[in-house]
Amino acid sequence: MSSPESTAPHARDLAQVEAANATGRIPVVFIHGLWLLPTSWDRWATVFEQAGFAPVLPGWPDDPATVEEAHEHPEVFAGKSVGQVADHFCDLIGRLKRKPVVIGHSFGGLITQITAGRGLSQASVAIDPAPFRGVLPLPLSSLRAASAVLGNPANYHRAVPLTFDQFRYAFANAVSEEEALRLYGTFAVAAPGEPLFQAAAANLNPWTEAKVDTHAASRGPLLIISGQKDNTVPWAIANAAYKKQAQNEHAVTEITEIPGRGHSLTIDSGWREVADTALTFVRRFVDPTT
Predict the structure, then answer these.
(1) Which residues share a beta bridge with 159?
(2) What are the distances in angstroms from CA 212 to CA 113, 115, 193, 248?
(3) Gap between the Cα atoms of 162 and 106, Å rounded
(4) Which residues are CB-contacts of 79 (< 8 A; sequence separation ≥ 6)?
(5) For labelling, which of 50, 152, 160, 261 has a CA lying 20 to 30 Å from the CA of 286?
(6) Which helix (H) or strand (E) holds 257?
(7) Confidence of residue 282 (pLDDT cuts 50, 70, 90)
(8) Nearest 5°: CA angle at 159, between 156 and 165?
(9) What pLDDT score does 4 carry?
(10) Helix (H, G, I), strand (E, B) or coil at 181
């Protein structure tokens, strides 16, 4: 595990929180998943800012500022658990003066649902979200996508990068090889192994950190977005999460599938369709002008 100091909010994240508070606008917090950095949301931030929101793009604990820094010091990603990361984001959200919208991708989608279950968001969008306890399907494609980490138990405490071939299968299977190479060079960084082990064992561990309060009265409206061709979080997983969340009697729960899209749907050339889908949902429940 990382030292306690590493869980403290980074100065650049606190600066974003202060900037969002200064606008008086409703914040929208973007949470990235494994093998990406907050910069993967830059274009989304522009779209939501133009729509009247105050975007906040915090990192996981110890996230470097750039992909170049991440390649130089991949070891900083090691030792991050789901619980640690969830508490990290909940702390940052608690510093906002206005209750935010929260949008997350992959493990960021899992963290988004955790924050929603704690009543911290006005509305939430979980895009191809990693599974939590109670989500039972474990398709072969998901196992293959995670095998870069799960194939070696020693990776639990390590930071693990993806080779291009692994990235191509797990993220960029639905785009051309040329685009996959560009995405790999632009966005891919190492990731902690621990969250993948936690998610894989969530249904065997009653004390798992990979759990969501799906019945919370304060959860707020939730949209789950699934990429039709996603190998990492295929429809079976996304729909199982939706069915668990739909048991919430207090808030709207919806799911939508984006045709022809893989796990890279938030960063590839079709990102705008996904961003607009999320924004349309959010606007139904949150008025940024208020």
Answers:
(1) 192
(2) 6, 9, 20, 12
(3) 16
(4) 1, 2, 157, 192, 194
(5) 261
(6) strand 253-258
(7) very high
(8) 105
(9) 39
(10) helix
